Amino acid sequence: MATASGIDDNLIMPTETQQRAWMAQWNEARHALRAQRAVEIQALSNERVLAAADALLSIGPLAALSEGRRTSSGLVRQQALFRRQAAP
Q1: Which of 24, 48, 66, 69 is the most exposed place for a label (fewest CB within 10 A)?
Q2: How does pLDDT run across 38-65, given as a tens digit for each residue?
Q3: Cβ neighbours of residue 10 closer than 8 Å, sequence gap 6 or more
């Protein structure tokens, strides 16, 4: 049953050993997934990569952009604001 704080009083916190085992399992999965991704990328043909890139790039024209948005993304202005805020 959840309390007012939103925490279920019936939940049992995992022990430190269980937490370490869980983290070890996630780390093993991370390495296995990274290796699998590398294998899949290496197996891609140039034609397939170019087709995927073309498909992604073709999405852009579907969105209507204002003239201001076409000439500036606002990133430079945002970075200037961050610099001003960070300055002592």
Answers
A1: 66
A2: 999 999 999 999 999 999 888 876 677 7
A3: 1
